[in-house]
Automatic annotation (TrEMBL):
It is an enzyme of class 4 (lyase). It comes from Lysinibacillus macroides. This is o-succinylbenzoate synthase. The gene is menC. PANTHER family: O-SUCCINYLBENZOATE SYNTHASE, O-SUCCINYLBENZOATE SYNTHASE-RELATED. Keywords: Lyase, Magnesium, Menaquinone biosynthesis, Metal-binding. One of its GO terms (biological process) is menaquinone biosynthetic process. Belongs to the mandelate racemase/muconate lactonizing enzyme family. MenC type 2 subfamily. InterPro entries: Enolase-like_C_sf, Enolase-like_N, Enolase_C-like, Mandelate_racemase_C, Mandelate_racemase_N_dom, MenC, OSBS/NAAAR. One of its GO terms (molecular function) is magnesium ion binding. The active site is at 164 (proton donor), 263 (proton acceptor). It catalyses: (1R,6R)-6-hydroxy-2-succinyl-cyclohexa-2,4-diene-1-carboxylate = 2-succinylbenzoate + H2O. Coiled coil: none annotated. Mg(2+) binds at residues 189, 214, 239. Its cofactor is a divalent metal cation.
């Protein structure tokens, strides 16, 4: 295939409820949509997951636009590509900027799946018909509110609940949840809010039968996590620390975690995500698919990835209506009793909702050979 035209759109989407973590709050989601067209007129879609500020990783909505426009699109336009795995090799000269790379690689995977008349899940080697999903609940203004939300999610059948913790908002909150809900599948995510000086606090969490503790220590650390894991009974799950299959290999060798959360954007695309999945499978490390408050296009990519066999733990891909008044795809993603059906039609299996996309778009640029 050759990409002949790429359209970038910058969208602003109001969220039903603001989402708060240890690093900040997202009340309105901004994202870029990548619509790529090949020489036969097939279009594929990708979505960026960077936020407006560099608080989860160093990327932002603006840096993803810059990288796409000035580096990644010029590298891809009119290049002959036989398989989407070649895209990450084409981008090898560009350091990091994983979210920008992943967004356009995702559009190439979508086109490839359509060309070969398979679902994106099949093209990736996935074999599940449906996936199990959980939900991630942000920090709330009171523990009572948090517990009410958890009860509602369990009532709706979500397979596990993740809550966000930070210093002074951890053991007491978990204890309160466990007093009311002793048996629910529960985990916590610290988004790097602790250091090894907090080991005593993190060890107290061992008493509450948590599925795992996600990313307690620094975003770029695997060494201290290995030290911590030796002194914790609960498995550590790494999120921010794993940006490539090489990071995953080193973390596994050091014993830094028992579980890995795979996010397509954080690791630079579906090809790298699949490599991490395969490495973890060979090393008996279970994985699950993380979330970045994606709109429908990114959510569809997550569903396809989660159909791979070592995604044995429920991920953070909740249904569209958990986040959005109106999603940008038809049909919207529906989670029923904690399951999402993996679409079987060619490509990502959801159609872009152009009316909604147009309404939410604040700027658009089209790239063809003549404009570069
Ligand atoms: O519902 C989702 O998409 C997952 C939400 C979530 O936990 C999250 C949201 C924004 C940034 C980082 C994270 C995270 O997994 O650490
Ligand atoms: Mg996380």
């Amino acid at each position: 295939m050759k990409l002949t035209e790429i359209t970038l759109r910058h969208l602003k989407m109001p969220m039903k409820a603001p989402f708060t973590t240890s690093f900040g709050t997202v009340a309105e989601k901004e994202l870029l949509l990548i619509e790529a067209m090949d020489e036969s007129g097939i279009t594929g879609w990708g979505e960026t997951v960077a936020f407006v500020a560099p608080w989860y990783t160093e990327e932002t909505v603006k840096t993803t636009w810059h990288m796409l426009k000035d580096f990644l699109i010029p590298l891809l336009l009119h290049k002959e590509i036989k398989h989407p795995d070649e895209v990450s090799a084409l981008f090898a000269s560009i350091r990091r900027n994983c979210m920008a790379k992943a967004s356009i690689e995702g559009a190439v995977w979508d086109i490839y799946a359509q060309q070969t008349k398979q679902s994106l899940a099949q093209a990736l080697g996935g074999n599940k018909q449906r996936i199990e999903v959980g939900v991630s609940v942000g920090i709330q203004s009171s523990t009572a509110k948090l517990i009410d939300q958890i009860k509602e999610h369990m009532h709706n059948g979500y397979k596990r609940v993740k809550i966000k913790i930070k210093p002074n908002h951890d053991v007491e909150v978990v204890r309160a949840i466990r007093t009311e809900l002793p048996d629910i599948p529960l985990m916590v995510d610290a988004n790097s809010a602790y250091t090894l000086n907090d080991i005593k606090i993190l060890q107290q969490l061992d008493a509450y039968n948590l599925l795992m503790i996600e990313q307690p220590l620094a975003t770029d650390d695997i060494v201290d996590h290995a030290t911590l894991q030796k002194q914790l009974q609960t498995s550590i799950c790494l999120d921010e620390s794993i940006t490539s299959v090489e990071d995953a290999r080193k973390a596994i060798e050091l014993g830094s975690c028992g579980v890995i959360n795979i996010k397509i954007g954080r690791v630079g695309g579906l090809t790298e995500a699949k490599r991490i999945h395969d490495l973890c499978q060979n090393n008996n490390i279970p994985v699950w698919c993380g979330g970045m408050l994606e709109a429908g296009i990114g959510r569809a990519h997550n569903i396809a990835l989660t159909s791979l066999s070592n995604f044995v733990l429920p991920g953070d891909t909740a249904g569209s209506s958990h986040y959005w008044y109106e999603d940008i795809i038809v049909p919207e993603v529906k989670a029923i009793s904690g399951y999402i059906d993996v679409p079987q039609s060619a490509g990502i299996g959801y159609a872009p909702n152009r009316a909604v996309i147009d309404k939410l778009t604040i700027s658009t640029e089209v790239y063809r050979s003549s404009t570069i």
